[in-house]
Each structure stands twice: as C-alpha cells, then as structure tokens.
UniProtKB/TrEMBL annotation:
Keywords (A to Z) from UniProt: Isomerase
Keyword presence, Isomerase: yes
Family label: Belongs to the N-acylglucosamine 2-epimerase family.
Gene Ontology MF term list: isomerase activity
InterPro entries (alphabetical): 6-hairpin_glycosidase_sf, 6hp_glycosidase-like_sf, AGE/CE
Residue intervals passing through the bilayer: none
Source species of the chain: Bacteroides salyersiae CL02T12C01
Protein name (database record): N-acylglucosamine 2-epimerase
GO BP field: carbohydrate metabolic process
Length: 392
C-alpha cells in the first residue's frame, strides 16, 4: 500500500462528501426554517415523514455544523444552522427542573422525557463547539454549566429513574464512555478541573469494571462493582459502542502526548471489539454479540447499522496514528470498502441506516429519532482531520 496516496485519497473523499452530499442534504431537507432546529425523520428522498423532533439530535446537529465549520470549511451557512438549532434547544428543550426532553413537536412542545441524560450531553458539546466557531465565550460557559448539571443529575439519588428495581444492582457502559467525549469536547472550549477529573474517572471505571479479559470483551452492563452478570443483558457486547470508546480513549491518549497506558488500553479494546464485531461471512460490523456465544436477545442483533461502521473508520485511523502499524490501515480499508459499497445512496444522497446482515437494505429512510446528521458527518470530519495530520 502506498500510504501517502491512500490517505490523500480518503482526505479528499471525506471533504468532498461533506461539501457535496451530507451537509447539503440535511440543510435542504432537515433544517426547519420556520421554527428553528432540525427534523431528522426523513424518507429516502429527504421528504418529511414525521415532524417529531429528536432533542438529542438538536444538539448533535448543532455540534456537527460547528465541528465541520471548525475543521473543514468556515461555511457561514453551517454556523447559522448551528445557532438556529442551539436557539431552539434553549427556547424549547429544557424542562423546569433543568433536565431536557427527549422528543418535542415541530414548534417545541414537549412530547417525551426519558431517564437518560444523553440529550444534555449532546447539547453541551454543541454549545462548546459553537463557542469555538463563533468566538462567543458565553456558550462555552453554558456548556460547562450544563456538564456540571449532568454530573449532579447522575450523582443525586432520585433525580433519574433507575433502569431496574433494587433487586438488580448494575451499571451501564454508555454513560461512562459518553462522558469522556463530552468532557473532552467542552475542554477544547473552556478549562475546568471537573472535566479532566471526569475523563480520568470514566477511563479508570472502564478499565476496572467493564473490561473483562476472561471474555476478551468490554461489556455493556456489569454489576455495581464490575461483576459479570450471567444473564442475557449482562453478556451483551456492543462492538460499535466499544470501538467508539476505543477512539475516545485514543483521542485522550493523543492529548497526553500518546500516553502509553491509555494507548495500550484503547488498542486492546479495539482489537477485542473488532474480533467480536467483524462479520467474517458477510463483512461489516455486526450489532450485538453474547460473550458466551449464546443467542443474543435483540431482534436486530445481526443487522448492520450505519454508526458502528463509522466508529470503526475513525478508530482505525486513530490506531494507525498512534502506532504506525499498517494492520490498522488494513482495518480501515476493510471496513471502508464494505461501508462505502453498501450504505451510500447514490441516487438521492446521504446514507441508508439499516441493512440486513448480508448488506441488503432493510428500510431506506435517511433518518428517524435515532439516525440523523451526526455519526456520518462526524466520521467524515474526523477522517479528514486525521488523514491531513498523517500526510507528510
């Protein structure tokens, strides 16, 4: 492999796809020019199929626009879209207790609130990234305040409804890993010791409790002290989440001048999760595995969703940057070749989100409450950034 040519090719591809495909699709079809914010429930051709607004995607879209503005091109349309969406968040998406809704109507009337704080984490990174893009420090301060509210919600008994009754003492991987990225994105806009401490605490918790060498796996759910729970839920491996976690940790290792302990931990998670996740028969990263190789419960366990593929693309580039080991470029090529052969819609633009195990399209919508402008454009922005850094 000619590494320089390979990285140059992907650098150009990521930038061109953002400028000519992904961002135009969402600005044309998703941006709500009447109410502010963004719609994500779009059919294959971009037509609106539901006016319900996903609150966490308001933050995700504002982050996407601001992050692309900061790292690909200072396009004023992107910055204006980010501001419109943040305004919508501030005007409509917070409940009176300071927590955020999960779904609202087109005009911002609340529809649903959940026990999670993911809406809050994405709003926080949106405000932080917008602060960098716009130069308006007040948004960095708002992001930091929201981050500390998130910590308070998580650490104050009774604020968030528990997932299970007290008969099951467990904790989940998702919130631990997302707080690494949340804190690191806010730290890029404003310094505070609470951000560094959260990153340290999350990484330590992942290593101590969620990494289980007896299975060569990072588990999604463990006991309160990291115990293995031998149930269907306790045995779940979500390779996409684990691979995403690996690059969050690699990003932090890079921030610390490639701290060896963090780099080794992240590479271990990536190698384990690739082995569990890569479908050796059909290709692509599979949704769920059972650490005892028993049948997973989730009905979509063997499907190929868009986002695990994008996380593997980012993680493999970070791993190559950390090690210069071409096995990670081979991994990048393997997942990229499969992803780009199956997910992009060359007729109407953007990507399909849901494929059967063999790579055929399960349903053609471009978005819903859970899929929208985040994982794909984040991958392209990060991919462009990393390839440019790696080029001589």
């Amino acid at each position: 492999m000619n590494v320089t040519e390979y990285l140059q090719k992907w650098s150009v591809s990521y930038r061109d796809d953002m400028l000519g495909n992904i961002m135009p699709f969402w600005l044309k079809h998703g941006l709500d020019l009447r109410n502010g914010g963004v719609y994500t429930c779009l059919d294959r051709d971009g037509s609106l199929i539901d006016t319900t607004k996903s609150v966490w995607f308001q933050g995700r879209f504002a982050f996407t626009c601001s992050y692309a503005y900061n790292h690909i091109e200072q396009n004023p349309e992107w910055l204006a879209a980010a501001k419109s969406t943040i305004d919508f968040i501030e005007q409509h998406c917070f409940d009176s207790d300071g927590r955020m809704f999960f779904e609202v109507t087109a005009s911002g009337e609340p529809l649903r609130k959940r026990r999670y704080v993911f809406s809050e984490t994405f709003a926080a990174i949106a405000m932080a990234e917008y602060a960098i893009a716009s130069g308006e420090r007040e948004y960095a301060e708002k992001a930091l305040k929201l981050f500390k509210d998130i910590q308070r919600f998580l650490n104050t008994p009774g604020v968030l409804e528990p997932k299970y009754w007290n008969t099951v003492q467990s904790k989940g991987h998702s919130i631990v890993m997302i707080l690494i990225n949340t804190a690191s994105r806010i730290r890029a806009a404003i310094a505070d010791p609470a951000l560094d401490k959260q990153i340290d605490d999350s990484i330590a918790l992942l290593q101590k409790d969620f990494m289980h060498p007896e299975f060569n796996a990072l588990l999604e759910t463990v006991g309160s002290n990291g115990e293995f729970i031998d149930t269907i839920n306790g045995r779940i491996i979500n390779p996409g989440h684990c691979i995403e976690t690996s690059w969050f940790i690699l990003e932090e290792a890079k921030y610390r001048n490639w701290d060896k302990q963090l780099t080794d931990m992240a590479l271990t998670i990536l190698d384990w999760s690739w082995e569990w996740g890569w479908d050796k028969e059909y290709g692509g990263i599979i949704n769920f595995r059972d650490c005892r190789n028993l049948p997973p419960q989730d009905y979509a366990h063997d499907m190929k969703f868009w986002w695990p593929q994008t996380e593997a693309i980012i993680a493999s580039l970070y791993a190559y940057q950390a090690t210069k080991d071409e096995k990670y470029l081979a991994m990048h090529r393997q997942v990229s070749d499969w992803t780009y052969a199956h997910f992009p819609d060359h007729e109407f633009g953007e990507w399909y989100g849901y494929l059967h195990r063999d790579g055929t399209v399960s349903q053609p919508a471009k978005g819903n409450i859970f899929k929208g402008p985040f994982h794909i454009p984040r991958m392209m922005t990060k991919g462009y950034e990393l390839c440019r850094e790696l080029l001589p």
